[in-house]
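REQUEST FORM: STRUCTURE PREDICTION
Request ID: SP-0412
Submitted by: Lab K.M.
Chain count: 1
Length (residues): 374
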Amino acid sequence: MSFFNVINSCKKTSARVGLLNTGHGQISTPCFMPVGTYATIKTLSSNEIKKINYNLILSNTYHLYLRPGIDLLEKFQGLHSFMDWDGSILTDSGGFQIYSLADFRKIDDNGVQFKSHLDGSSHYFTPEKIIDIQRSIGSDIMMVLDVCPDANADIKEHEKAVEITTRWAKRCLEHLKNVGPKYDHPQFISPIIQGGTNEELRIQSAEELLKLDAEMYAIGGLAVGEPKDEMLNVVELLNGIMPKAKPRYLMGVGTPEDIIKCISNGIDMFDCVMPTRNARNGQLFTRYGKVNIRNTQYKEDMSLLDSNNQYSISQKYTKAYLHHLFKTKEILGCRIATQHNLSFYFNLIEQAKEAISAGSFNSWAKKFIADYNS
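STATUS: Completed
RESULT:
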């Protein structure tokens, strides 16, 4: 069975429906990955995530390395057993988190020296060590160690990031080839295309990484503060360069509108903390835009959270009740809002896939974006 197959394609856009096959099951794409940085989707159990029909989640190598630590994860034979999750897991390498520690890290050609944000202890990550950590985690899809400058970095910094990221991606792939997975399921590696919003650097990064013939490719270094139109331009540019026969992952994006626009440009996989983080702050996503449930206007609102969202919680509780829970700081409010938002994201992408298969994606996408901004 191949790692990825395209099943249906839109004739007017680059949107497509595919199947991604891992050792922990099959994932229909496009797909959104809930973010479980510390081996949990905040406020929810693994079983509750399964009930929303997610079968691929994201966790973070840097954070799991620090807590609970690799020795403990190996005792459990990996993260799946540790968190009682039988679906697939993608682990981000932690490059973004390490790079954000501007005052606590130093990058050289061989790797990155950094101090833990928890206790100040010193650590050194090489591309090979990052793969070994992810082997111990047992993730189905591993991201390479990369260098991810922020949106305001100068051109020389982006040039250096592209150069190092390409070299490190090659080392990651070679290392896994030499040592193999740690447990009894396959592990796949995804290089990460960098280059900021500079078209020449993005093309250079993509072309160099494509020579490595990896199973999939990711677009990194976006959703880090650049203007929205520049982010979309980069995705459109890379749509014409990235191989159509391999899954494409856009890291850290994003809003419902951005997801639909990027599906139009051939993106298959997304992740973002937005649906869960915003939920904990009392913000709900709906087809007609966002609802800030803390607002006084919802104090006596007896309407359902979202009658358009096909999920039991969205059609069980009222806005007045959820408003009350947030005002009284009851944890149930965060749990209800999180389940609603994750189900909204899941159902949104399911509707997109149905439209692609029916040949109506272009018109459906335009209507959704118009409704969402109404």
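NOTES: The chain has a mean pLDDT of 96.
Reviewed by: T.R.
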